[in-house]
Amino acid sequence: MKIDILTLFPDMYIGPFSESIIKRAREKGIVEINIHNFRDYTKDPHGNVDDTPFGGGSGMVLMCQPIFDCINSLKKDNSKVIMMTPSGRVYNQKIAYDLSREKHLIILCGHYEGFDERIRSICDMEISIGDYVLTGGELPSMILTDSIIRLLPGAIDEESAKFESFNNNLLDYPVYTKPRVYNGMEVPEILLSGNHAKIDEYRYQEQIRKTKELRPDLLGDKYEDKV
Ligand code: ADE
To answer: 106: exposed, middle or buried (C-beta count within 10 Å: 0-12, 13-18, 19+)?
Structure first.
């Protein structure tokens, strides 16, 4: 997969994309990530990428020209252009799975200000990472990128991806490691039994129990009679 990110603050990406799973996925060629400063595309003699809003009002508005030119220079037939914005569709694991099947993502980040409304016409999708406002789309784009890359074949142990939170709209089951007793709290006996069929069933029931307790909104009326 190829991911192009458009931002005015490329240095923000240095740390998050140079460590751990993302770093290894890049090194293994599972993903190619390129960061573009769309200021480099402006035709404004002063290097501006924003201007005051028509009709008045506070703040500045990101202009069409640098963003259209930057996206058009990167866009191919198989590209999906995503705008990071608090007014977009709220992100979840299902969208992450869908996007992980794409070949090329172009992710557009604003900072401080809004986008000229006409920029929406060049985007295929608008995504918000939650109902709160951040200073810019950079952190949201990192969250998007991280959650997608870990789903790409070879990025992480595929077995662990199979049993993680939000698959089947269930949270992950609880896990324990040594010691067997810590401050009087014991590891459930069944996990020490060696009976894998029973352990699987226990874990599944724990997924349902935990989801009911912590995130009942994920269940709707599913599992109503089962636990
Ligand atoms: N930019 C600012 N806040 C945002 C959010 N919640 N999601 C996506 N992009 C944003």
So the answer is: buried
